[in-house]
Design goal:
By secondary structure, the protein is mainly beta. The chain contains one helix and 37 strands. It starts with 6 loop residues before the first strand and ends with a helix.
């Protein structure tokens, strides 16, 4: 049992009638080449070795203590594309995999992640062109080194509506984020917003992560009780809803109105989901609808008339192939269901990064076909692949504050290389 090593997914192989195990070392303080441990099947460490970032031991050779692997040279320049038609224009040169993270509230700058000299960095780019500058997260910001993917994407920094503050998470890189802090961008001062943070997917109106209008929204766990809080950047916070001892699933906030989902299983393609609506100050939530499958990324429309979600479903078994479609649900001002749910788009396996357009005419979503899709609310309109003219794969995008443009990374391969890694010398010295 190697689960206590602090190591990653193992590769086992046989060399001269002896079974060896190679396993990645999870050292979150390191950057650059990935570190691996070579050990016996019983768990005795024999040697450690490093491989270039983005590579892991592949097929081991039968007659040598060595393995073959390939490394793909991928780049993803960021493009800016008008939502309502028009050509895309490049923002970055694409010397690495550039990933857009957030459009600043002024609509003039884009925060993105890239690799410089082998290290992950954040850059602020003027969307109209001009010099870029590096953006430094606070030293205690929660991050997990994931090689070429950088830190764990479960909590991307969130900017306040006026662009003066930034919400970020802190905590143990292995255990996950446990506290929320606010950074004041003007002077670098930070303070704790929540010391009992519980990582739940919370969106505000329009689908903004962890922010609803001028307030940050998040869940806390104090003792055995889970609460939904809203707070201006400098406080104080208020309790919007108490979930009691029930672990909250997906949550979306629109002022004092909320919707949340409870899932009967963690398997997206199986079980059932209950969707509830509630209002701050009420003691009971109202069941809106019960569905087979699983709901992801609940989002109030900006006008408060619609709930959008990705509906994952299968045949009701845990081994079923997962399918997903965008689902719209109309809700009255009193929090009641208006008609039944309506599905949009083809069941292509997944939709994610959903976000509402500011005029509430539909959402934008990544599809499993590698395109960004406009999914209209109007049943007379058909979905549109906004990025159909881009031949490359698109796995992430961010929408400008005015809803007129998206920024996305256009991923392409510049080739690949084959590597031979010989471990015999490392094993002989039994060390580094």
């Amino acid at each position: 049992d190697t689960s206590s090593w602090g190591l990653g997914y193992p590769r086992s192989f046989v060399f001269r009638d002896t079974v060896y195990v190679a396993r990645e070392v999870k050292d979150n303080s390191r950057s650059g080449p990935e570190l691996w441990d070579l050990a016996t099947l019983e768990g005795r460490s024999l040697a450690r070795f490093s491989v270039p970032a983005g590579m892991s031991p592949g097929r081991f050779l039968k007659e040598e203590l060595a393995f073959l692997n390939s490394k793909s040279d991928e780049v993803a320049p960021i493009h800016i594309l008008p939502v309502d038609g028009g050509p895309a224009r490049p923002l970055t040169e694409g010397r690495a995999v550039d990933e857009p993270l957030a459009w600043l509230p002024d609509g003039q700058r884009l925060l993105f992640r890239t690799t410089l000299d082998g290290e992950q960095v954040l850059l602020l780019a003027p969307v109209g062109g001009g010099p870029m500058r590096q953006f430094q997260l606070p030293e205690d910001a929660w991050r997990v080194d994931l090689g070429e993917r950088g830190w764990n994407p479960d909590f991307t920094p969130v900017f306040s509506s006026d662009g003066r503050h930034m919400l970020y998470a802190t905590g143990d890189p292995e255990a996950g984020p446990s506290a929320l802090k606010v950074l004041r961008l003007a002077d670098g001062r930070t303070w704790e917003l929540s010391g009992a943070f519980h990582l739940t997917d919370v969106t505000g109106r329009g689908g903004t992560d962890f922010r609803d209008g001028e307030e940050f929204v998040y869940t806390e766990k104090r003792g055995d009780v889970y609460e939904l809080h809203a707070s201006p950047p400098e406080g104080p916070s208020r309790v919007v809803w108490s979930f009691g001892r029930d672990v909250p699933g997906q949550v979306s906030v629109h002022g004092d109105r909320i919707v949340f989902a409870e899932h009967s299983t963690e398997q997206p393609q199986a079980g059932e989901t209950w969707l509830y609506s509630a209002r701050a100050g009420q003691s009971e939530a109202r069941e809106l609808i019960r569905l087979g499958g699983w709901l992801g990324r609940l989002m109030w429309s900006p006008n408060g008339r619609w709930i959008a979600a990705s509906h994952y479903y299968g045949d009701g078994t845990e081994t079923a192939h997962v399918r997903a479609r965008v689902m719209y649900i109309a809700v009255s001002p009193a929090g009641e269901l208006v008609g039944g749910p309506r599905h949009v788009g083809e069941p292509m396996g997944s939709y994610w990064n959903n976000v509402w357009l500011p005029d509430s005419r539909g959402i934008l979503a990544n599809g499993a076909d590698g395109n960004v899709w406009l999914m209209p609310v109007d049943p007379a309109q058909s979905p549109v692949a906004l990025t159909a003219d881009d031949p490359n794969d698109l796995w992430n995008f961010v929408l400008s504050p005015d809803g007129r443009h998206i920024a996305y990374g256009s991923r392409t391969s510049r080739g690949s290389s084959l590597w031979l890694v010989d471990l015999s010398e490392a094993l002989e010295v039994g060390g580094n």
